[in-house]
Amino acid sequence: MAFFANQMKTDMLAMILAGGQGTRLGKLTKSIAKPAVQFGGRYRIIDFALSNCANSGIRNVGVVTQYEPLALNAHIGNGSSWGLDGIDTGVTILQPYSAKEGNKWFEGTAHAIYQNIDYIDSINPEHVLILSGDHIYQMDYDEMLQNHIENHASLSVAVIPVPMEEASRFGIMNTDENGRIIEFEEKPKMPKSNNASMGIYIFNWKRLRELLVNADSKDVDMSDFGNNVIPAYLEAGENVYSYRFNGYWKDVGTIDSLWEANMEFINLDNELEIRDRNWRTFSRNLISPPNFITEEASVCDSLVVDGCFVAGEVNHSILSTNVQVKEGSVVEDSFVMTGAKIGKNVVIKRAIIGEDAVIGDNAVIDGTEEIQVVGYSEVIGEERNEE
Q1: 80 assigned ligand-binding residue
Q2: Is 124 exposed, middle or buried (0-12, 13-18, 19+ CB in 10 A)?
Q3: CATH of the domain at 247
Q4: Which one, 15, 112, 233, 239, has least CB within 10 Å?
Q5: Is the pTM value of this prediction over 0.90?
Q6: Which is nearest to 376 in space by CA: 47, 90, 31?
Q7: Same domain, 246 and 329
Q8: Which domain holds residue 299?
């Protein structure tokens, strides 16, 4: 039985899959879900999907969580930071639960949607937009929806061109001259095209619901969109179309890609148009005092967010809210998260410093050979308490 009654029918509901553990990010996802990891000084990764929804005119968003959801839940709140807390709008946090004996935690992307059928039915959408909560990009989902409708598609898959030599790392969608997908290859050794799936799908809800319910009743594995659902659609001869995206898109699922995306974010000519007032990226931010940069400090080619105290040298780096860099210290080519304290005469190069980490005086963190990571609240060296 649906748990919200008499909901108005809507064109499209967004479902953000935000339950990934993100083990490849190591220390950074030890206690929080990957979509909650900070990015760019004042954002978290999930902010980009949520902001895209708000800018695309999507009124209702379900956020499917699983692994370490507390920080993510606190960040999203009631959706007010994204303007999704009004009449007939809302963000709903959807966590695993057991409605009947034998139900399990989410076993895959499609299974997570199946387990939330009651919620989706309560919104009563014509279409369901499936998103990942751990990518950095700006995209108008309404344009993709219009393309979906014009093609009379049952399923549309967003694709992005990648270098042919890298195509074997992705799920590849091979299409005809009209953009209709005729073949899906999961990380092929010899790819036939470079149309990489972005993990962004628009489904006609009635058809997807039917497929998932029938599969469950017949004990057919339909737990994953890439491995099960898309091949089933193609085998059944459904209208499956690609939607080509040519903007900035980054999967920040590894330490190297997260560091690289943050370094790219510093550049004024970055393809990610974060300063575009017509497509704003929203977030829930701390209220902090203004920055204080001492006379002896040097800050060059860097992003410095509210509440920072800088008495050292900062080059091509990002200092998030309330970061401290004391006298004699050098921070270079690094991303420093909220609340980190860097003592005196410290050297940090090519590193990611976690939230509330403490780097004691005279410490050296050198990522010249390999990007170095300091975890949340991790202490390196000794912290000196000074009045």
Answers
A1: no
A2: middle
A3: 3.90.550.10
A4: 239
A5: yes
A6: 31
A7: no
A8: 292-380
Q: Which of 313, 12, 337 is closest to 149 using CA atoms? A: 12
Task: Give the separation between CA 320 and CA 276, rounded to whole angstroms.
Answer: 21
pLDDT tens, position by position, for the chain (387 residues)? 333 333 444 799 999 999 776 678 989 988 888 999 999 999 999 999 999 999 999 999 999 988 777 888 999 998 999 988 877 788 999 987 655 545 556 778 999 999 999 999 999 999 999 999 989 999 999 999 999 999 999 999 999 999 999 899 889 999 999 999 999 998 899 999 999 999 999 999 999 999 999 999 999 999 999 999 999 999 999 999 999 999 999 989 899 999 999 999 999 888 888 888 899 999 998 889 999 999 999 999 999 999 999 999 999 999 999 999 999 999 999 999 999 999 999 999 999 999 999 999 999 999 999 999 999 999 998 765 554
CB-based contact 201:156 (threshold 8 Å): yes
Residues 297 and 332 in one domain: yes
Distance of CA 345 to the CA centre of its chain: 35
Spatial separation of the C-alpha atoms in residues 156 and 48, rounded to whole Å: 20
Q: Alpha-carbon distance 381 to 375, whole Å?
A: 14
- Is 85 among the domain residues? yes
Q: Is 171 annotated as a binding residue?
A: yes
- 332 phi, psi to nearest 5 deg: -135, 135
Q: How far apart are the first and last CA of the chain?
A: 60
Adjacent-strand bridge partners of 299: 314
- Say how many domains are in the chain: 2
Q: Within the chain, how many helices (H) and strands (E) appear?
A: 8, 29
- For residue 324, the cross-strand partners are 309, 341
Which one, of 186, 108, 224, 17, lies nearest residue 232 by Cα?
224
**197 in a labelled binding site:** yes
- Across the strands, what pairs with 131? 16
CA atoms within 13 A on the CB side of 270: 21
